[in-house]
Specification:
Layout: H1 2-18, H2 45-71, H3 75-95, H4 100-112, H5 114-127
Helix pairs in contact: 1-2, 1-3, 1-4, 2-3, 2-5, 4-5
Length: 136
Amino acid sequence: MPRSTHALLAAAIVAASLSPAVSMAQTAPAAQPPAQTQPAIKPSEAQLQKFASASQKVAVVADEYRPKLNAAKDEPAREKVYREADEKMVKAVQADGLTVDEFNGIGQAVEQDPQLRQRVIELAQKNAPAASGARQ
């Protein structure tokens, strides 16, 4: 499961950059996702809506665990924090009706396609609570 942890955390960074409520989450330390040579999937509108919702939840988890990760004294402690964050992120993604693979695939597609990215931003802003700031 360590592979899914790092992939999901990388996706969380992408998700965080899309979420107006947690825009500071972009600064999390994470492994760089590998360059993609194969074409990304073309998600449906329903998948994009699920992704937008799940990405906001994943970004909140990433934001919650960033200080814990930074405070980890050694690699075993860091891995424990990763595992805890991974469990919460997986639950958040699954609660929105996506598998981790679907979430990560859509995240890659969104990262590669500016039009998809803009659509997810619009969906995230539409679903964001009014108090999270309508600034842009």
